[in-house]
Amino acid sequence: MYLPTGTELSQVYDAPPNLFQEGLIKRNLAFAVDGQFDHRRMSVERLLAEVKSWRVLPNRRAGTVVTEMLTALDEAVATITPPKGVSAGMAEQVQWNVRRLLAGSEISRRKRWSSAHAPTCSNYLKGSAPASNRRHRPRTKTNSVLILG
Q1: For residue 141, is it within any domain?
Q2: What is this structure's pTM?
Q3: How do residues 70-85 score in pLDDT, each as one tens digit?
Q4: Which pick of 18, 41, 44, 146 has the fewest CB atoms within 10 Å?
């Protein structure tokens, strides 16, 4: 959002509740993140590449912001009771997605889940991401959003 006080991301933009409605599942975001629309392909690496393309934050600050945001979201989902009417399993899926991102993985598809520690994004900032995550990807300049659901 372009505001008189500066530019910032909208609090919620691309949150498709249809991920929990049989027959209505759509996995694409409205806008690409680092050229990728499929939310299962989201990763910290993609988030950091997208932030870098905006040229508004230094790389180190971007990594700090992404880590803090994901950590805060993980803590919030773990401590807040979802309101009545929320789709069954939604909070657990959001937390699983966040923990996948914190672990340096793509969101992917949910498999058997076990609790994991929450590492930071520093391995991506230092260029030591796993080789499978460092392959070149074609870039397209787009607006960006993130789906964690």
Answers
A1: no
A2: 0.61
A3: 999 999 999 988 888 7
A4: 18
